[in-house]
Amino acid sequence: MTDEKLSVIIADDHTLFINGLCSLLQNEPDIHIMEIAINGREVLSLLHNHTPNLLLLDINMPGLNGFEVLKQVKAIYPKIKVIMLSTYNEEHLIEKAKAGGANGYLFKNAEKNELLQVMRLVAQGQSCFPYKQPVKNTGFDDDDEFLKQFQLTKRELELLQFIKQNYTNQQMADHLHLSIYTVETHRKNIMQKLNLKNPVELTKFMLQYNL
Hints:
Layout: E1 6-11, H1 15-25, E2 31-37, H2 40-47, E3 54-58, H3 66-76, E4 81-86, H4 91-99, E5 104-107, H5 112-123, H6 145-150, H7 154-164, H8 169-176, H9 180-193, H10 199-208
Parallel strand pairs: 1-2, 1-3, 3-4, 4-5
């Protein structure tokens, strides 16, 4: 993006939520709120005269819902990046957003730092979707007692191998074709599952179990 500001259109039918978003973003020097819309048809109308870098798009809106707007935006304005906004942490909605061409998916209770990080990563061309914790006994190798003992997934074990080799989050993201947001979420989950508080404790853990 260099020195160019990230231009944004926000679409949501809840005035308080839009006001909150605007309040969070208005003092960010690299972000420009171009327009706001309160329904799907208004989004499409605004896009006739405005071309934002990024569209923050609520899933549930009157008239045309977010998925219907997403379909039209990606067909007519494929260069516009779209982040879906939702209160629902449901896998089928996240997958539907991916299938529709969305570039990211954010929960409405996200913290400001997460919001800004996802917006900037998506603007740079990365995809940012929530990491879904697998249900119990799904995604684990039943023959691997280590994975079962600590309830780790194969992906998390893979990340531990990279961490041992002193890979940065960005290097892991590039190597595994993931967004850095996803890698950071994996790392957070690993620390929580292993009940570790800092990188030093993680290093001791890996030495103890000869990872």
